[in-house]
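Methods, example record. To illustrate the input and output format used throughout this study, we show the complete record for Large-conductance mechanosensitive channel. The sequence lines were provided to the predictor; the line carrying structure tokens was produced by it.
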Amino acid sequence: MLNEFKDFIAKGNVMDMAVGIIIGAAFTAIVTSMVGDLINPIIGLFTGGVDFTNNYLVLAGDVPAGASLEQARETGASIFAYGAFLMAVINFLIIAVVVFMLVRYVNKVKSLAEKPDQVAPEVPTGPSEKDILIEIRDSLKAR
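The corresponding predicted structure is encoded as:
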């Protein structure tokens, strides 16, 4: 059984998957930082710093007026946190666009790297057989 486990772990697919997961985790950190530290502040400039995270409705329970979402949750009240959900959707869309653009750029670079070297343009080899026959016909007509 130990040998079977060693064979399973040593297979290329498992190792590829492990490397993919590790790189995916690192990539997630980069994309999250890019969105949170670079893109969201720029969007905040255009939207006037709108943040919907603390928008919620109290379904049941007592929550002090003006309490943040976190404070409202701490009271144990039943909260409908539509603002947090809306911000999660907005962040998802931003992250999806950023990932799409990065993947698109990587694919473009990859396709350029795989292209064969520039092929020399075709050099004309002279008139075709049809061109020669037309020339002969025209010269015979002129006689």
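Annotations derived from this record:
The mean pLDDT is 81.
DSSP finds five helices and two strands in the chain.
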